[in-house]
Amino acid sequence: MAKVRDVWRDLVLTLREHHLSGPTREARLMLADVLSTSPSHIYLFWDQDLAQEKMEKLYLMLEERFNGVPLQYVLGEWEFFSLSFDIRKGVFIPRLDTESWLEEAIITLRARFNHDQGIICDLGCGSGVIGLTTAYWIPGIQVYAIDISRPAVDMTLHNAGKLGIDSRVIVELSDLFQDFASSSTIQFDAILSNPPYVKEEEWFTLSPDIRLHEPKDALVSGSDGLDLIRRILNDSSSYLKKEGFLYLEHDPSQVEAIAEIASPTPLRWDHIISDYQGQPRATVFIRR
């Protein structure tokens, strides 16, 4: 059996030879997974032998990575906003871009609802990271999580239980608000959404690990990438309380088009939130 430190060294070299980005980080995450520990604690196992069954698991993980499977699917979980979410193929992988605007949303909503009951909607919830993170950090929040995808709905339910907040989360299988069971009575204090916004023609320019493994419907939205965004902007005001917020993620190039689409609706443009690269990543609207 090999020592963990030797496995670590060989793993980094192997990942680098296969031209995977961030080989040191990937090696740390994979090794932490097989050791059932946190990435920061793998050094505590440095002088231990790695059991054969753990080596075999590591080989299987490497084989998946070399076949282009995203690391998030290989690990079966991913950290978002310092929380661990389970993730499976068929469900959109959460991105750091979403954390950039959700941080501001949580600060704003926490100031309003930390001690009073608030109700929000995670529209197009995927694995649930937006709504569940908000509910986790704001005890007074109840979340309705909506998605058209059954695997996404199931994963959100699972992650709500994993985080211990399932009593404050209601998950609905619906095409946006079209099949929303309680639509006639529920109005939200805020709607938070990371909808598909990639143009159809751009799909084939995306990296193979995205095109071959992530669900296209969670990324692409018509010829201009705005099909779902149009529906959200036109429909959301009916489900927002007066002065309720809509946080909408989008591509930086879509800022002007989104403002124009929203102009005739009861939604008032408020401000833009930039991502960690300084690009406009989300627009905030308020229900007039």
Can you walk through the features of this model?
The structure is a single chain. The protein has helices spanning 4-17, 23-35, 52-66, 71-75, 96-113, 129-137, 150-163, 208-211, 227-235, 255-262, and strands spanning 77-80, 83-86, 118-123, 141-147, 169-173, 188-193, 240-249, 267-274, 280-287. With 288 residues, the protein is of the alpha/beta class. The chain folds into 2 domains: 4-67; 82-287, Rossmann fold (3-Layer(aba) Sandwich). Helix 1 crosses helix 2. The chain is globular.
Helix and strand arrangement:
Blueprint: H1 4-17, H2 23-35, H3 52-66, H4 71-75, E1 77-80, E2 83-86, H5 96-113, E3 118-123, H6 129-137, E4 141-147, H7 150-163, E5 169-173, E6 188-193, H8 208-211, H9 227-235, E7 240-249, H10 255-262, E8 267-274, E9 280-287
Parallel strand pairs: 3-4, 3-6, 4-5, 6-7
Antiparallel strand pairs: 1-2, 7-9, 8-9
The number of helical elements comes to 10
What structural class should be given to the helix and strand makeup? Answer: alpha/beta
- The oligomeric status of these chains comes to single chain
Radius of gyration: 21 Å
Biggest sheet, strands in spatial order? 5-4-3-6-7-9-8
Integer count of domains:
2
Task: Report the end-to-end length measured between terminal Cα atoms.
Answer: 66 Å
Beta-strand proportion: 15-25%
Fourth-level CATH superfamily of the largest domain: Vaccinia Virus protein VP39
Number of strands: 9
Named CATH topology of the largest domain: Rossmann fold
